[in-house]
Amino acid sequence: MPLGKGRDRTKVAMEDWEAPGKLELLMEWRGGQGLTMREVAGNMGVTLRTLYNWSGESEKIRGALVIGRGMQIDALHESMFKRAIGFYADVEVPMKLTETIRKNGADGGIKTEERVEIVKHRQYFPPSETAGIFLLCNLDNEVYRRKDKDDILVNAMKAMQERLGKIDQKFEDMSTEDLREFVKLGQGRRNGDS
């Protein structure tokens, strides 16, 4: 149950929320749990307007909320980056198991039991072209302007050539279709295809 539920909201003071333990709680709610400002205010036992007023008056409260927001953004950047390059993750999936039991005795019957167990396994999530384009457009928008996919692919190849200096001149002469085919072949090798 969130803090403040069922109690008189007028008894909560800004100074109560400036204590170190409370500031860490604000950061956790905002950053770790991803709560909105309205949800944070509800957990504090104050109105949204009061929370905004307090964040304007108290550098400590404002700082905790800003740090929490930064934690949210960092987590999103990390997730988007992982999605853009592909990653492995441990996932839990339900698996149906069937067990056959043979009875010894006069009736000699066979009994079958089914059950579902949760099994962990390592799963590969392949790179997402969309996530890669989104990151490149936002992190290096001078090179990767939002035009269309063909322009972005051409700009990506040109930028890699300029920055790394290791790409052979033949890429410059390749058509967009040839570049796409080249990228597909590279992804196939990475995924274990021949």
The chain-level structural class is alpha+beta
- Identify low-pLDDT runs: none
Described by the principal axes of the CA atoms, the overall outline is: flat
Q: Count of DSSP helices?
A: 8
Number of domains: 3
The helix/strand series, from N terminus to C terminus, equals HHHHEEHHHH
Q: Please state roughly what percent of the residues sit in beta strands, choosing from under 5%, 5-15%, 15-25%, 25-35%, 35-45% or over 45%.
A: 15-25%
Mean pLDDT: 79
Number of strands: 2
Tell me the span between the first and last alpha carbons: 55 Å
What is the gyration radius calculated from CA atoms? 28 Å
Main sheet characteristics: 2 strands, antiparallel
Strand order of the largest sheet: 1-2
Level of helix content? 40-55%
Structural description of this entry:
It contains eight helices and two strands; from the N terminus they run ααααββαααα. Strands 1-2 form a two-stranded antiparallel ribbon. Helix content is 54%, strand content 16%. The chain has three domains: 9-81; 87-125, no CATH class; 129-190, no CATH class. It is flat, with a radius of gyration of 28 Å. β1 and β2 (110-125) form a beta hairpin. The model has no long low-confidence stretch (mean pLDDT 79). α4 crosses α5. It is of the alpha+beta class and 194 residues long.
